[in-house]
Amino acid sequence: MTNKITEKTLNDLEFSTILETIEAYCISDLGRQVVKKIRPFSRSLELKSELNQVNEYLSSYVNENRIPNHYFDEITKEIYLLGIEDSFLDGEAFIKIASMSENVNDLLLFFKKFASYYPSLFAQSEHIEINKQINANINAIISPFGEIIDKASPVLFAIRKDLNKIRGQLGSSFNKALAHYASLGYLDEIRESVADNQRVLAVQSMYRKKVNGAIMGSSKTGSIVYIAPETTLQLSRDLQNIKYEEQEEIVKILKKLTNIIRPYALLFKTYQAYLSHLDGVGAKAKYAQKINACLPKIVNEKKIFLKNAYHPILWMENNSKGLRIIPQTLELNKEQQIIVISGPNAGGKSITLKTIGLLQIMIQSGILIPVHEKSEVSIFDNILTDIGDNQSIENHLSTYSYRLKNMRNFLKRCNANTLFLIDEFGTGSDPELGGALAEIFLEEFYEKGAFGIITTHYSNLKVLASELENVTNANMQFDQRSLEPLFKLHTGQAGSSFTFEVAQKNGIPFRLINRAKKKVEREKIRLDKTIAKLQQERNVLQGKSDGLAKEQLAAKEGSAKLLEQQKKIQDKIQSFQDLYDNNQKMLSFGRKANELINKFFQKKNKKELKDEFLKWAMVQEAKYEKLKKDKLDTELKKKNDQKEIPLSKRERTKINKELRTQERIKAELLKKTEKEVIPEIVKIRIKKQKVDREKAIVIEGYQFQIHDTVRLKDGNAKGTIEKIEKNMATINYGQINAKSNVNQLELVKRASKK
Prior knowledge:
The chain is an alpha/beta fold. Helices cover 56% and strands 14% of the residues. It is built from 21 helices and 19 strands. A hairpin with a 5-residue loop joins strand 3 and strand 4. Helix 4 packs across helix 7 and helix 19 runs antiparallel to helix 20. 28% of the residues are buried.
């Protein structure tokens, strides 16, 4: 498989619109970049792997084993810095790396655990290293908020201890100064403020000389002067010095941690690429869920069978407006290599053509498509398109000149592994001359074995399609009564253009339409009318055919049910017959045994009884062996009839031996099962008896009282004693009362003492 699909083809089929929609489902910027770069795959194995991954991700929405969240922050800058010697990362960078590492490890373990559910996603992740040491190293130094923890090093622990001590002293000293100058009335109403990251006194400007300290600034009006008390200045300088030492120690710690993490730079790159790819796969799956897409069967033979296919862009647009969209069913294969679609303008020819092309591009780009699950597609090396009016202003080319250049390109690149899509084939020039040239092009594409779909109004192309063996006509159906297109493709017959009918629908006056009809050759009008009439008759026949097909299917289903019921009845009859035969056999054995016993009672002759019993037993054994032999002969005869080869005595013996071996194995399995099951049954019985014993409280010589909860020794229902008279207790079971002898009762719960 080689990918020769050009950007022109992607643009003609509006593939970029699909990518923009999928991009919106991504959860990361890198995932969006991955989606923007999606193009048809050039390797078949990679394509199938991607399609299976998207399909498995889609299936995760409906099973219990949902794929874990895989959001991540980009670490491209961090990976770049790790490649620079003596560089170091800050706490926030380490948090992003730790989060990504943990995320990937969770995903790798998840796919390993559920490899049977997600085989392709597991295969994609199997080669990636699981590394928990990275997070262990980072978590030992960095807090979840990206700060260096106190115990990152003994030096940092000591520095921060001193830092907290000085901060305490500084706060205490400032509070004393604040209370002192406030009592003297030197401070403004706000009392204090912050300047250069330190607390300062808000002194009224008239008292600034009476306050000892350093002036740190003033208010805009000049009425307030901000002064740092003299008693705190030295402590502030000590605090700044210790902060500087703290920062130096933090840099040392970060450099050391960076050097520990640096060897994993390539692994981080792999992690980021993996999460970006998974984000793209997830976005494709979300898009597939939105448009009800699925994975059709990928076949090796050149074939396209799209059942109930939708154009995804049109589907989303119509769905948002609440409009209905008609699905199309179309097939290309060796017997139907090229389809020529004709029919009225605005009847859906172009959108049908674009639907097939776009869905083929999507599936070859690893994107699921909105079709019936029984659809089938194969992979094409090349997809060529000629859609729309492509005048080239830059190159001073007319529409027809441009299309001729395009056809020249088609002729160069077309082969048996090509799918071509041409809209309005042959237009742009004189109908007769352009149509003749279009015929030649179509014949060339046909001879090269290319698959394709073209739309046209040219009658000569419709005729050619009916003449070529593996080229088929198709039409977009049109309702002549309502003059409305039905947007439904029908294969097997050319369609009328309904030129005058469409003109009438669009408000062209009848007199102008009639004048136009007079200018057209009479035979042309007759041909167009004939085609339209045939198309209408074909639609009626198709409707009847569909009805008959449904009735036939219903009849087949009913017949299958009857056959199934008949089989069940036959099985039951055979089962009853076997049971009856077995019972008759047992009765016969019983009668014979009874006869021998009676004879023994009369004659009291043990030897005669023994001889007759052995004789009877040997007769039964002979009958059994004969029955067994007949059964074996029947089996052998069946095999001989199937193989038409007579079996030798050795083969007969071998089969007989196999039958005996099977019977012996069945008997051993039965004994083994009994050996395993019977002890378990005994255990369950013992356990049940134990539970039953525990249900009642047995108290020797207990005298039952009113309101005691009791139950009968051989029963399970519990009740409350209402009354006791002469060893007869009246028991209330809720809705009913019953009497019983107290000797038949068991105590369940004593009456509560009030």
